[in-house]
Amino acid sequence: MTSLAVAVSTSMLGNLSSFKATNDIVNIGVIGTGSRGTGLIPFINQIDNLNVVACCDVLPFRLKEGIEKTNGKVKGYSDYRRLLDNKNVDAVLVATPFSTHAEIEMDALDAGKHVYGEKTLAKGYGDIRNLLVKAKDSNNIFQTGHQLHSSRLYTYVVDLIKNGKIGKIEAFECQYNRNGNWRRPVPNPGLEKLINWRMYREFSGGLVAELSSHQIDFVNWVLDSTPEQVMGTGGLDYWKDGREIYDNIHLIYSYPGGIEAKFTCLGTNALDGYQIKVLGSKGTIILGFADAWFYPEGNHEKELGNVDGVSGATVQWEQGKGIPIEVNHADPSRQALTDFRDSIVNQKNPISNIVTGAKTAISVQMALDAMYDNRIVKWQSDFDVLLKQVANEHSKNGW
Fold first, then answer.
1. pTM of the entire predicted model
2. Domains identified in the chain and CATH numbers
3. CA neighbours within 13 Å on the CB side: how many for 34?
4. DSSP string spanning 161-195?
5. What's the pLDDT tens digit per position in 355-372?
6. Distance between CA atoms of 128 and 115, rounded to whole angstroms?
């Protein structure tokens, strides 16, 4: 079946993983070898010229798991500051609990390391602001781990939308539903908050920061904007196990131009799982993790004879799914790490950078305040000046 992607040239696909120099090797230390940090190590092992040389975790069994993923070839640390002292480490991947991101990443920049900071960037307005100030004065690459920015499917779809494929954007409808208690086994009760930190407000942003943040980041990206306000509700209505974060959330963000973006995240029902709908005056695009479909609006025929300027291409309507959008793309997490390597070697600002990451982190904190305080939360305009300053400084650096 021919798809909307017929216009993607072979030359474009050939540049999916460009790398300027063959002898540039980036040595990376992984700080936080829990499920995410350890899960990313096999991807790093597959990427040329990106090598794990150190791992760090405060939990010995987690550190052991991380080192095992490297075939036991790296140095292990229980204190991240000792890892930062290692002169062989060029860059760090920070995959620690949400509340610790800012401190570790600021120390890493001070130590002259490039930073890949897992999402969500930082917890709370103060930490976001402090990290931005630190990054403004740093010459090091900083990539935020919103890996959809590196998905070649998502970047292609964003280009389609910005080039008018669906007309005027009217709204976004996003969901990220799962069915599971999110709880990890604890070998010792004293380790409960270290292992299950996602359950507690002191350390975690709950479903907003851990799941919905990817989709909030996508909306900010598509609109090249930030929300004017957010309202929301949620509840701890099913899991009665001592957790503090909500097990269901429902948010409405208002963007300039009257565009509304809705986000739903459930912890007890996985129907339709993950989905993003972008609704426009000429059609709708629906995205999953690795697939996308276009639904023409109005009286458009389901079988089109001319798509994206490719004469004679026949695009069939896939029953129940619209017209498939097919783009050759790698796993987004692997591609994001490849992009991180390339940004360091080429001294190029990542597409998911400190500024985009901060905008999403602010948007996440707005949602938490809206739900917990039961109020409408406005964007803090004083961030605009700082965000612009950081972007300008990185531009001066040739990024």
1. 0.91
2. 15-149+335-354+362-396 (3.40.50.720), 166-330 (3.30.360.10)
3. 17
4. HHTTTT-SEEEEEEEE--BS------SSGGGHHHH
5. 999 999 999 999 999 999
6. 15
